[in-house]
Specification:
- This protein is mainly α.
- The chain has two domains: about 80 residues; about 220 residues, Heme oxygenase-like (Heme Oxygenase, Chain A, Up-down Bundle).
- Helix content is about 60%, strand content about 0%.
- α1 runs parallel beside α2.
- The longest helix is centred in the last third of the chain and has 32 residues.
- InterPro entries: Haem_Oase-like_multi-hlx.
- It comes from Planotetraspora phitsanulokensis.
């Protein structure tokens, strides 16, 4: 994966610095509105900082991952990001641990937004389905990786439950059954480039935000409760939509092998949602009663950002427009 195209002064400066050997960084240029969740420059800068902890970039040396001055800049960006999230998603109240599973069910049931899965099932054309896959590729090509950060930060039943979920995500030890590999097959069947990060330049800030919030929660031990809540919401809203996605692809004549990614999630996530809500989040809340609010906050963030992405796609498609960004170079204005 190569560094993306800059989207503003921050990423233009950052990517130029990252192409050089690791060194002490000066202060970055000021942003326009660094607290905005849909700020293209901020979200891409955060994505790049986080990506150094995953697959990295071809032209960036690995020493940058833990360079103190880069971590300080990432912390500054994260503070803006966290304030924006907190403004968008009010912090839920702390509740008794025994009530956490049912509270998660209530959050999922209360979320209102456009039924993207219904549109893809009944109405979307092949071009819109390709766009949907491009948006989802930013996460699905590294599916499960952000939530795996929580494993060494847990203990007992909560840890065992998370490992059980992640084992399925990674194909039970068989590389061809890893969910990321199944999604690659779907992308190839849709005539898309299945290489990691191929479409970073095409997705808008709100799509990057979905991945960034997982990395934010995953890379900080203090957010482990939010990370578990995020995963629970992810699993609890997966089974039915994935069945509809598969049926939509079948309507469009896409072969069964390419639909396997979605079919796999219908069965697996129906089980995972129970494990995530009760055995993972419930056990973690019992072990740490002060974390119940964080669990629900992480779930609420997942649901809210998913709704914002759906609103973006549906609003663009309703207007007959693409939901993707045009490829363009950023240039400084005098």
């Amino acid at each position: 994966m190569r560094l993306p195209t800059p989207r503003g002064p921050l990423t233009n400066w950052l990517f130029e610095e990252l192409r050089s050997p690791a060194h002490e960084l000066a202060s970055p240029p000021p942003g326009r509105d660094e607290g905005e969740l849909q700020d293209e420059d901020l979200q891409l800068a955060l994505f790049a900082c986080y990506e150094l902890h995953y697959q990295g970039f071809d032209e960036v040396e690995d020493r940058w991952e833990w360079a103190p001055s880069l971590l300080a800049i990432r912390e500054m960006l994260e503070s803006h990001f966290e304030r924006a999230l907190a403004h968008l998603v009010p912090a839920p109240l702390t509740i008794p641990p025994a009530e956490v599973p049912q509270a998660l069910v209530g959050l999922v049931a209360a979320e209102q937004g456009p039924r993207l899965s219904d549109f893809l099932h009944r109405t979307a054309d092949i071009g819109q389905f390709r766009e949907f896959a491009i948006h989802r590729s930013i996460y699905h090509l590294k599916e499960a990786d952000p939530h795996t950060w929580a494993i060494p930060r847990l203990r007992g039943p909560a840890k065992a439950a998370l490992v059980e979920i992640q084992t399925d995500e990674y194909g039970g030890g068989r590389s061809q059954r890893m969910h990321s590999e199944l999604f690659r097959a779907t992308m190839r069947a849709l005539g898309l480039d299945d290489s990691y990060g191929a479409y970073i330049d095409r997705v808008p800030a709100i799509t990057l935000t979905v991945g960034n919030v997982m990395s934010l929660f995953g890379l900080h031990r203090r957010h482990r409760g939010a990370l578990l809540g995020h995963l629970a919401a992810f699993e609890m809203t997966s089974s039915l939509p994935n069945a509809l996605y598969s049926q939509g692809l079948r309507r469009l004549g896409v072969d069964p092998e390419a639909r396997r990614f979605y079919d796999e999630h219908v069965q697996a996530d129906a089980v995972h949602e129970q494990i995530a809500a009760h055995d993972m989040c419930g056990a973690f809340a019992t072990d740490d009663p002060s974390a119940t609010g964080a669990i629900l906050y992480g779930a609420a963030c997942a649901l809210t950002l998913d709704r914002l992405v759906a609103e973006h796609l549906m609003s663009q498609w309703t207007e007959g427009e693409t939901s993707l960004r045009e490829l363009c170079e950023w240039t400084a204005h005098p």
